[in-house]
User: What shape does this take?
Amino acid sequence: MSESRIAMIGLGQMARALAGGWVNTGRIPAAQLVGFDPAEPAARQFVEQLAGTCVLESNGRAVDAAETIVLAVKPNRILGVAREIQPHVNDRHLVISIAAGVTLAELTGALRTDRVVRVMPNTPCLVGCGALAYATAAGVTAADVEMVERLLSAVGVVIAVSEPDIDGVTGLSGSGPAYIYLMIEALSDGGVRVGLARDVATRLAAQTVLGAAQMVLQTGTHPAVLKQLVTSPGGTTIAGLEALEQHGVRAACMAAVRASTDRSMELRKTSSDH
Assistant: This one.
C-alpha cells in the first residue's frame, strides 16, 4: 500500500467501520489516518477505537494533510461539505464518497475535480462482511481504482458498476440487509411456532442464512443448483419450498428490490431538482 494519508471527513459509524477494517487488516497504518467531525463524541470515539489516528481542527486541515479524502457525511450535508473543502482540493487528491443518492456529476461540480469515486456500502461493513459497489468519474486512474478496491475489500466484497446501476445496488445490497433481518426474524418465529426456544430459533436461523450465503460465494454454484441438492423427492424441504411459493416469497423479494430501487431514483431526482 502506498504511504499516502487518508482524511475521513465525518467520523460516524460507517467511517469507523471503514477505517477499522483498514487498520485491522494492515492495509493502512493508523498513523496515516486523519479526520474531522464537528460532533465531539464521534471524534472522541474515532480516536479511542483506532489508537494512533489523529483528529484535526477542521475539514480543511484534514484535507490539507492527506492525499485521499473519504466523504462520510450525511447525504443532505455532503454537497455543502464538498463546497467547503473545494479550495483545499487539488490535483493530488482522490475523493471517495459513500453518501447515498448524491451523483458523480453533483460531486465533481461541487469539488471542481473529476477524480471522484462514488461508493454504495451496506451496514454489514461494520462486521467486515459488507457488499460494496463503486462507480468512477472520468478523472479516476487505474492506480486509483486499484487502491479503492484494496481499501474497500478490507470490509467486504467489492464490485465495480456503471453509475446508473447504483440505484439497483441500493435496492439490492444497500437496503438488502433489512430484508434479510426480516427473514431471519420470520424464520425464528417459525421455529418458535413449532416449539423451539426463541434464542435457539434465532441463532439457528441466522447461522442458516450465513451458511447458505457462504455456500453460494465459496462454491460459485448457482443458488438453484444448491437448492436442488437440499431437496429430496417427497421430503421435508420440498414441502417447505411449496409453502414459500404459495405465499409468494420469491415475488415479494423481487418486488422489494424494485420498490427500493424506484425510491432511490425518486430521491436522486428530488435532490437534483433542488
